[in-house]
Specification:
By secondary structure, the chain is of the alpha/beta class. The protein has two domains: 4-334, Alpha-Beta Barrel (TIM Barrel), CATH 3.20.20.80; 355-531, Up-down Bundle (Four Helix Bundle (Hemerythrin (Met), subunit A)). Helices cover 48% and strands 9% of the residues. The chain has 21 helices and ten strands. α10 (302-312) packs across α11 (318-329) and α15 packs antiparallel against α16 (399-415).
Amino acid sequence: MLKRFGVMLDMSRNGIMKPEEVKKYAATIKKLGYNMIQLYTEDTYEVPGEPYFGYLRGRYSQAELKDIVTYCNSIGVEVIPCIQVLAHLNQIFMWKNYDAIKDTDDILMVGEARTYELIENMLKSVKECFTTNIINIGMDEAHMLGLGKYLDKNGYQNRFDIIHRHLDRVLALTKKYELKPVMWSDMFFRLANHGRYFTTDRTVITDEIVASRPEGVDLVYWDYYSEAKEGYDAMLEMHKRFPGETWFAGGARTWVGFASNNAFSLKTMSLAMEACREHGVKNVMMTLWANNGRLASYYAVLPTLYAVRRMYDGVTDMDVIKKEFKDVTGENFDDMMLLDLPIDFGKIQRDGTHHHTYLLYSDPFLGMLDPCVKKSYKAEYEAVAEKLEAAAKVSSSYAYIFKSCAALASALADKHDLGVRTRAAYKSGDRTALLALVENYNTTIAKVTAFTNAFRTLWFTENKPHGYDVSDIRFGALLYRLNACRDRLAAYLEGAESSIPELEEELLPYIGHGFTSEELDMPIPLYWRDIITPNVL
């Protein structure tokens, strides 16, 4: 019998939902058939005795967490803390207080007394705020474990042994506070499989590895990517060899930029739900990550959330699902799916092929991503903007989300090839075209500004103000740069500058000579830091 079907909300990548929005979200998903929320908080919750933990990050106070939990309990939604006790703690290492317990990157130093003092403080705070005894302790993606300061201090040691020693100490603390832990399972696979997690090779998990897993912790198999049911079947079979229950975490894609990716989420999660049902998985959740800084609204993936919940029940007729969705939410399923359009124009694509983020931030003079621009984008983005603006007029609850995505599409219709047109006009010496481009820059600046205003409305509707400073910095740099490039073009036309050296460079294929996009996992970068410039930041 199904125990939990829930969501995990990423509250660590800048966008921390207001407590009232968390409660609103809980009420919404309860109508969809959900009974659990995991709040993913790396350092964004108050920990008494650790003043720098989540400092200036909008962390939830203990009072806020208690209020969220009390409300959710009243409507039958269990709130489970989802924290990190090994890796993914990069933000705390901004502060000198935690220097001594940094192994490398975002990983805690295993074996140090101060490490376990911090973890115990985390657990004490969690115990006070949450009424459930379940806790997700993380423990995922510690890729460089034992290879930083730990290596300097202790010499090279078997990394399986390191993680097990750490896990034993963490589990002793969870037992002390009467908490029942679950953890992401990937490190058991990665350390046994040359760093890889997903595999259909069932020999990877040996009897020795199964026996090495400590008692008292359940494993969470996460998979947002597999496009064949065989992958889910194989991984679930291997997980079932471990004692305890296997949880499954799928993905409702909110981490690819300013728009959702319901289409690919449904493609993968329909297979995952079939496998979970067949393998008797009783605890299921959809993760809503915010890898690029919490840009997409979590409401944008309501179509995925409802559909996968019904698919777990064995309902696969999309006409039935769409009708039920309208009855339950008051929103049109197909209209909500339009929120995918800024990233895929209606095509089902993986994360690595999305282009709206690089088209927004790409530099019009450096143009390192201009070889990826297609002529069709202008008409496609204009059509997207029109569809989203129309949907905004009929949405009962989410007009502000449609308006933000529509403003983005409208801006991209102008901005996407600004660098391409600038370079072509400059290289051909076409002064008429260059004069027209100066005005084109003004139009683009106005449209980008309109988008930033619409996105600001979305952000402050849903989230605390902390973290929006990053968007201000990104948007401010983008607008300043557009103004600067326009002014240099004008200066060149007036004779104040004799040349624009950046525009004289011959652009190379972004993905490299001799490669095709199909040969690379992520041919086009998703993250701002990889888009903004090839120069040193």
